[in-house]
Amino acid sequence: MTFNRKKMFGWIKIILLLYASIGIVLFYLQDKILFHPKKLGVDFQYKFKDRFEEINIPFNDADTMNLIKFLPDKIPVKGVVIYFHGNMKNIEHYATFVGPFLKLGYEVWMEDYPGFGKSTGLITEQKLYEQALQVKKMADVKFHADSIIIYGKSLGTGIAANVASRTKAKMLILETPYYSIPSLFSSYAFMYPNEMMSNYKIPTHTFLEDVPYPVIIFHGRNDGVIPLHCAKKLEAVLKPTDKFITIEKASHNNLNATPEYFTAIDSLLK
User: Fold this and answer.
1) Cut 0.85: pTM above it
2) What is the separation, in whole angstroms, between the first and last Cα of the chain?
């Protein structure tokens, strides 16, 4: 009996040590888990297949925000889609997603977050919000609110929702959103106090409560990055007129390859 108790306590110590060690690693590596930027030199030349204009915007003494304005061939321009991209690489990686909007006559403005592409500076949650809001204010100078679409993909959905909660626009479109960053982390590591451990909160659900205009959500049923159940929690804060569109057999990165997505975008923006 004594031997068994010693053996049991020995296993408990090992399990607790592993739990604590993994938790410490997750805490200190969470930024690397959440963000996967690819930096580009200031002299790098973009070669997009679509017409574009590049702008570098000083944000403060240390930070510069790189913005690409993709331009449609259709004249007159119907409006602008302000596109907040995901957590991978930089604008080059997401340029392939702008086609449907350009074909419908919309400009697409896409910024890189601090440390992504040509944008400089250290990334913080507050800075993500404030730089995104600056892009929206620039759009407000050129376009009426009824011609502005705020669009977020993956990581960018929470940022887009924050901007939408603070400004006027025609609609907010979210592709593969999450309830909050701690909630997303809990989908992978439910055994840890993620709300307390997470450096980034980005509470998409809170922001959506303050968006007075239409909200459209797209999510793939087979999303292995942001599980559908994490996004489905947002239904509790949607208005009766908002839409949550679940696409069968779609995963995290191929929604734009499905006819359901193209049909919905075409209907929303025409």
Assistant:
1) yes
2) 76
